[in-house]
Amino acid sequence: MLTGKLEHDANELKVVFEKSSDIVYRELHLGEQKGMLIFFDGLVDLQLIDSDVLKPLLNCDNQELNSSEIISLKQLLKRVVTTADISSSQKLQDVTNHILSGDTVLLIDGMTEALFISLKGWEKRGIEQPESEVVVRGPRDGFTEDLRTNTTLIRRRLKTPKLKMEQKTVGRLSKTDLVITYIEGIADDSLIQEIHERINRIDIDAILESGYIEELIDDNPFSVFPLVGHTERPDKVAGSLLEGNVGIIIDNTPFCLIAPQTFFQLIQSPEDYYQRYITSSFIRILRYLFLIVSLLLPSLYVAITTYHQEMLPTSLLLSIAAAREATPFPALIEALIMEVAFEGLREAGVRLPRAVGSAVSIVGALVIGQAAVEAGFVSSTMVIVVAITGIASFVIPGYEQANSIRILRFPMMFLAGFMGLYGVFLGVITLQIYISRLRSFGVPYFSPIAPLDTNNLKDIFVRAPWWAMNKRPGYGGKNKTNRIKRNSRPGPNQ
Amino acid sequence: MRQKGMFFLLIVMLPLLTSCWGRTEVIDIALVTAIAIDKGENEDILLSLQIAVPKSLGAQDGQGSGKSESTIVVSEEGESIMQVYRKIQMKLSREIFFAHNSVIIIGEELATEGVSSVLDFFSRYRQPQLASTILFTKEKASEVLSLNPHIEAMTSEEITEQEKRGAGLEVKVRDFVTRMLADGDEPFASQISSKTLQKEDDSSELVPSLDGAAIFKGDKLKGWMNGIESRGVLWIRDEYMSGVITVKVIDDRGGGNIGAEIRQVSSKIKAEVSKEKVKIIVKTYGDVEIFENSSQLDLNDPEKLQTVKKMFEEDVKDRLELTLDKAQKELGSDIFGFGHAVYRSNPKLWNDVYKNKWEEVFPEIEIEIATEIKLKGTGFSSQSMTLSN
Fold it and tell me: What is the CA radius of gyration of chain B?
């Protein structure tokens, strides 16, 4: 509790913020009264403090201040300070919290209430194009590290009072702000409740990125697949909210979480909904193809060339045999070496400073592509297989989910190497059972295929035109409402 | 937890400890691309395998080791295919792999004695051969295999490509065996022989060529048909796709030739069966487009066209009769499946009367041929160039 004696209160705060070089205590006189502004340098907008707080306070009529016997904070607030967002509290704990979160605190001698003036302002990145999810057609703005900017980006897309943004603070030390956003009436109430409860359960020292939250609210912590989605694109969040999902925007990261997540979001890109539906559908089918390639091509190659040579056309088998003539390792080992080399190269490409990036690609292409084949260490067919697999894994829009597929490729290769096609199919069946078992916030991961929901199939294998997607492909069931008026297929007026 | 761990360990060890597995690298197998079977000099069977050498077949790497043989032919004699195959295996560094074999060639001497003993292996072995083409030769089968390929990489490929082009009768082992075992049907297959190919530099080389057919009765070779006769077989069996026919215009009408392509060929076999008599009616149809006309006939004239049509029909009929005569009277082999047609029209009668004495009845049955040709076009120019003079 504040005592009302400025000196005492200020000293108490100085003890709390001991050894903090970036805190500012600005003493000021309001006529007879002494006051003090306390804030962190760098978290506040100094110019605004000068113009909106200091100037009015110092210039205000001394007469006016002195004439009233009791200067209540509320009066001062009304008359002098020209800032919109102002609150007050009597607790010392609140005072420290507000100072830490960037508010400016005004203490006045004789007052047991502290005034919090919100003039936050710090250096932040501007809105840029999201780097991890590039589209050709579609909005170019991406989330930034600033929570308020991010909520604005969503708010501007959905101008409805039904768009709710509930704020929470998580992390004992970091006190990270996060916003749970959803559209009332579309998102399932029990889902919102569940997310609230799971987030309330988190008791951690700090949240530095959305990944912390993602792992701490996961349904199945041992799952290979991510059960919470994330994106850098506000349009994708808005789209998800409209489908009844819930978004979790977290301060200090440009990644927003989306829950629940299903398997088929792996092949859905925001661009699908902006392009013509025929194009999108074609690309969808292409993605499914490359999804299978990305998961199975190396293992199919290993299985067929070591167990089922009769399955290949003779001339293809002869080419493969000719290419493998001089190679020292069995197909499985060769595939593993090449896949690991490729993964290493890929990882190097991500981590390397831009200046040396091209060097890596040259070395990679020359050493792994050409020299290794010419030296007879690996066969050229294997290089082709690994290259196609590598390309295929980049075709999948869901980056995190594509990574899961990338990892699953290795057990598949072992199965193929030990048991041939039999092993590959065992692996695929096991994977299918596993995926069908997963749940994300109560939603079966493989829905709407398993369990089958024929109403929601319009956005799975192909992307149906907007005028044909009448129903909201929601998960709640009861909140499923019509999205678009029936019979809205466009055409010339009759 | 401990128990779970043990279980997991067991699962992981399971595939590793099976000790017996079917893994073979592609570089550990010897791909058999063609098989030749002859009667051996000392023993029953002389088996020759044409084995592909991938080193010299695949895309050439930077350091080309010069032109080396793309295939090798290995032969061995023995009592049964299985035995000979094991004998050959002993001499090879790689495991013999039959699944990619595309051609089986059998020599005349062995074929005359009967082929069922050798074909049994190919239909029974786990790397099945039923989709291979079966061919017969008057020469030594192994010598046909040893011919050098010219355009394709391997002799077997040259043979199968010729087959695809429609040169032969395209009989797979599967078809051959089915016909051999079926009642009222007899097997036949293409004949392969080595022919001389004249090259530019006045040198000549022998190349495999598909021409004619080997006609069987049961599993024994009965005789050969030449190219024209063998085409008739396909025609009657409704397997003929397209071809060329040329008719000579008689001198009274001015002489010359009319050549045409024939397409959309089909035929129907009908049997009229009674207890005493079997009559087979073969109806054939075909569309004809004239591409060559060196006669004096003006093809713009519908009447002339009728005559041309008649001539084509006569020609086709003559050809088919030639084939039928040869098969029926000379070889006595029912390669057209007439017996089957009889069965279809009257199964009971077939089973009761003809099934067991078809061999004697077949050469005596009456066969009627009806041809119907439709003239579909006369090419881009209607008049013969010789006519305008």
Answer: 27
For tokens 């293409």, what's the residue? B190
A269 token code pair? 């890109």
| Under 8 Å between Cβ of B108 and B137 | yes
Residue bearing tokens 């998961």: A295
Q: Are A252 and A260 in contact (CB under 8 A)?
A: no
Range of the domain at A392: 279-443
pLDDT digits (tens, 9 = 90+) for A369-418: 788 888 888 888 999 999 999 999 889 988 888 899 999 999 999 999 98
Structure tokens at B340: 């089957």
Which pLDDT belongs to residue B66?
Answer: 46
What architecture is the B228-389 domain classified under in CATH?
A: 2-Layer Sandwich (3.30)
Which chain A residues have a beta carbon less than 8 Å from that of B31? 314, 317-318, 321
Mean pLDDT value of segment A150-161 = 94
Tell me the shortest Cα–Cα distance from A339 to chain B, in angstroms.
19
Helix (H) or strand (E) holding B289: strand B278-293
- Identify the segments of chain B with pLDDT beneath 70: 15-16, 18-21, 57-68, 381-389
pLDDT at A475 over 90: no
Report yes or no: A321 and A304 within 8 Å, Cβ to Cβ.
no
Q: What is the mean pLDDT of residues A247-268?
A: 92
Residues A235 and A301 occupy one common structural domain? no
| Beta pairing, strands A104-108 & A33-40 | antiparallel
Among A397, A413, A443, identify where a domain stops: A443
Domain count of the fold of chain A: 3
Q: Do B24 and A309 touch (CB under 8 A)?
A: yes
Q: Quick check: helix, strand or coil at residue B339?
A: helix
Q: What is the pLDDT of residues A162-188, one digit of tens each?
A: 999 999 999 999 899 999 999 988 888
Residue A57 lies in a domain: yes
CA B120 to mean position of chain CA atoms: 19
Contacts of B62 in chain A (CB under 8 A): 374
**A231, A249 contact by CB (below 8 A):** no
- Confidence (pLDDT) at A288: 94
Domain ranges of chain B: 25-56+67-225, 228-389
Choose among B23, B57, B62: nearest Cβ to A306: B23
Predicted local confidence at residue A247, as pLDDT: 95
Give the orientation angle of helix A331-351 with respect to helix A380-395, to 10 degrees.
50
Residue type, B259: G
Option in A310, A327, A380 nearest B100 (CB): A310
Query: According to DSSP H, which parts of B225-330 are helical?
Result: 227-236, 302-325
With CB atoms and an 8 Å threshold, state whether B58 touches A307.
no
Quick check: helix, strand or coil at residue A264?
helix
CB contact under 8 A, B100 and A305: no
Q: Per-residue pLDDT tens for B220-237?
A: 888 888 888 888 888 888
Q: Which residues on chain A place their C-beta less than 8 Å from a C-beta of chain B?
A: 305-307, 309-310, 314, 317-325, 327, 330-331, 374, 380, 415, 417-420, 423
Block residue for tokens 């060097």:
A359
Pairing of strands A256-259, A229-231: antiparallel
Q: How far apart are CA A390 and CA A403, in angstroms?
A: 11
B64 vs A113: which has the higher pLDDT: A113
Beta strands in B40-100, from DSSP E residues, in sequence order: 45-52, 71-78, 95-97
Q: Is A381 helix (H, G, I), strand (E, B) or coil?
A: helix
Q: Are residues A233 and A306 in the same domain?
A: no
In a domain, A316, yes or no: yes
Pick the residue from chain B with its C-alpha nearest to A319. B58
What's the burial of A348, exposed, middle or buried (CB within 10 Å: 0-12/13-18/19+)? Answer: middle
Determine, for residues B16 and A418 on separate chains, whether the beta-carbon distance falls below 8 Å.
yes
